[in-house]
Amino acid sequence: MDAKKSAEEAVEPDTTGEKTTIDSKDEEIKKLQEQNLELNDKFLRLFSEFDNFRKRTIKEKIDLSKTASEDVISALLPLLDDLERAAATKISDSQEEKSIITGIELILNKFRTLLNQKGVEEIKAKAMPFDTDFHEAITHLPAPSDAEKGMVLEVVQKGYLLNGKVIRFAKVVVGQ
Length: 176
Fold this sequence. Notes:
The structure is a single chain. The chain has four helices and six strands. By secondary structure, it is of the alpha+beta class. It folds into three domains: about 15-65; about 70-120; about 120-175, Nucleotide Exchange Factor Grpe, Chain A, domain 2, CATH 2.30.22. It has a three-stranded antiparallel beta sheet with strand order 1-4-5. Strands 2-6-3 form a three-stranded mixed beta sheet, with no helix packed on it. α3 (about 70-85) runs antiparallel to α4. The model has no long low-confidence stretch (mean pLDDT about 90).
């Protein structure tokens, strides 16, 4: 009987060794798949983070280029005010004075065109409802009619926007 048992053992392959090898390979595959998912997740996060950084940098450059001229334009606004006052000056009928005013008006128009090309626009204030986002109340006066209460009666100094952003509030008189 011993010979029979040893013959059966010789015929039957040892499957326990193969099973442990297959199990260890399955575990290794599972670990590698988890690592793959983890690395893929990290890659996607880094890619997304880099893409957001790139978009933010582009937006900052655009914002910088839009507002880089803000200081210069703000410094030029008093000059614009002076040119407007000079053009509105009452003059005599002398041809020389008329030609000076005409020259000032030409310069003023070129200056306004240049500012408009750079994104500067005047804030409309006269006869508009008072809006703290665009107007600064210098004083309040009794309104001539009920319809003019809370309305801008007079503009003391014009206000301006640069690409939609207020660079100088309009200084106004408001009706009470």
